[in-house]
C-alpha cells in the first residue's frame, strides 16, 4: 500500500486527510504538535509522530526517524490564521503573530520538503502537496484585511513554485492547493463546504496528478487558481 505523510493532522483538514487515506487502506504517517491532545487522530490508527513544523530541529529529527521509508505523498497541511478581523487590519498590526504565520505557513513547508525529499524520490510518482489558499492569490485579491494570512499564503505559493522548479526534474510533482472555504476551526461555521467534500476533491487531484501538473495552483474542484 502507498504511504502518505500529513502535517498538522490533529483536527480539521489534516485529520480528514488521515481518515480518508486510512479508509482506503493507505499507510498513514500523521504528525501533530501534541498527540496526547489529539484523541480523534490517535483513534484513526495512523502512525502518529509529535511535530511542531516550526521547530527545525524536530523536523530534522523526524527525518532521521523516517529515513529509508518511501513516501508516495507528502502533504504540507499545518497552518495558522492569526489576527482575523479588525486586529489584522491596517493600523497597528503586531509583528509577533505575523512572524508566526510566516514561520508556519511559508518557511515550514519548504523545510519539510527539504527533509523528506529523499523519501519522496523513492516513490514511483511522488506528489508533494501544499495546502495554500485562494486568499494568497495576488491575482484574485480585491478586498482589504487579513494581510497577515494573505501574505503568508502568497509566500507559500512562491515556495511551491520554487519547489516545483527544484524538484520537478527529480520526478516530484509539486502542487499548491486551495481547499475551498471549509467548515473547520479555521474556516468557521459559515464556510461553504465540509472537510469531507474538500478532501475528497483534493485526494482525487493528488491521485490523478502527472508530471505535467508540476507547479500548478488548483482548487479542490480542479479549477486553476490565479497566482
Ligand atoms: N478551512 C479553510 O476554509 C481553509 C481555507 C484555505 C486554506 N486552508 C488551509 O488548510 C490548512 C488546514 O486548515 P484547517 O482549516 O484544517 O485549520 P485548523 O482547523 O485551524 O487546523 C490547523 C491545523 O494545523 C496545525 N498546526 C498549526 N500550527 C502548527 C505547527 N506549528 N506545527 C504543527 N501543526 C500546526 C494545528 O495543530 P494544533 O491542533 O496543534 O493547533 C491543526 O492541526 C491550513 O494550511 C489552512 O491555512 C484552510
Q: Quick check: average pLDDT? A: 97
Relative strand content: 5-15%
Largest sheet: 7 strands, parallel
**Helical content class:** 25-40%
Which CATH first-tier class would you pick? Answer: Alpha Beta
- The helix count comes to 6
Shape: globular
Low-pLDDT windows of residues: none
Structural class: alpha/beta
Domain module tally = 1
What spatial order of strands do you see in the largest sheet? 3-2-1-4-5-6-7
What is the correct CATH architecture? Answer: 3-Layer(aba) Sandwich
Quantity of strands, as a count = 7
Determine the CATH superfamily.
NAD(P)-binding Rossmann-like Domain
CATH names the topology as: Rossmann fold
* Terminal-residue CA separation: 34 Å
Rg over C-alpha atoms, rounded to the nearest angstrom: 16 Å
Please write the string of helix (H) and strand (E) elements.
Answer: EHEHEHEHEHEHE
GO molecular function: oxidoreductase activity, acting on the CH-OH group of donors, NAD or NADP as acceptor
Protein name: NAD(P)-dependent dehydrogenase (Short-subunit alcohol dehydrogenase family)
InterPro entries: NAD(P)-bd_dom_sf, SDR_enzymes, SDR_fam
Organism: Roseospira goensis
